[in-house]
């Protein structure tokens, strides 16, 4: 059973500002979650899944993901999902932090951040 605090936290991750502050994002659906887990690019914090999704995993995957998986019911998944029809699983992943330090060698440098439309850069 999910606590109210957990439900509120996951619902708050639907907002970009909160995702950026927390350094966490969520993925929904069996295919996307499996691909992110297999890719091992992003660290998985927690998996909220229906019992059917757990049954669809191989034995090796079940052993690997059991420690971070919480089996929930349909109505709980509906509460935390951003989709109108939730699909078996929702997982929380840590965002990668990028630490880029500009290289400046006694020349004029232009540093741009958060350019939304590159076409507007020239104008």
Main structural class: alpha+beta
**SSE pattern, N- to C-terminal:** HHEHEHHEHEH
Average pLDDT: 89
Strand content: 15-25%
What ranges have pLDDT less than 50 throughout 5 or more consecutive residues?
none
Q: What percentage of residues falls in helices of 4 or more residues?
A: 40-55%
The shape is: elongated
**Biggest sheet, spatial arrangement of strands:** 1-4-2-3
User: Could you give the distance between the termini?
Assistant: 54 Å
Number of strands: 4
**How many helical elements?**
7
What does this structure look like?
The model has no long low-confidence stretch (mean pLDDT 89). The chain has 7 helices and 4 strands; from the N terminus they run H-H-E-H-E-H-H-E-H-E-H. By secondary structure, the protein is an alpha+beta fold. The chain has helices at 4-12, 16-22, 30-39, 51-56, 59-65, 74-80, 119-122; strands at 24-28, 44-49, 69-71, 89-94. It has a 4-stranded mixed β-sheet. The longest helix is centred in the N-terminal third of the chain and has 10 residues, at 30-39.
């Amino acid at each position: 059973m999910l606590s109210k605090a957990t439900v509120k936290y996951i619902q708050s991750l639907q907002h970009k500002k909160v995702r950026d502050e927390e350094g966490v994002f969520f993925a929904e659906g069996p295919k996307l979650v499996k691909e992110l887990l297999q890719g091992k690019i992003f660290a998985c914090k927690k998996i909220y899944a229906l019992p059917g999704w757990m049954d669809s995993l191989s034995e090796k995957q079940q052993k690997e993901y059991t420690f971070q998986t919480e089996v929930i019911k349909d109505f709980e998944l509906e509460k935390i999902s951003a989709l109108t029809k939730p699909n078996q699983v929702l997982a929380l992943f840590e965002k990668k932090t990028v630490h880029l330090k500009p290289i400046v060698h006694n020349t004029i440098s232009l540093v741009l951040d958060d350019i939304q439309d590159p076409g507007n850069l020239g104008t």
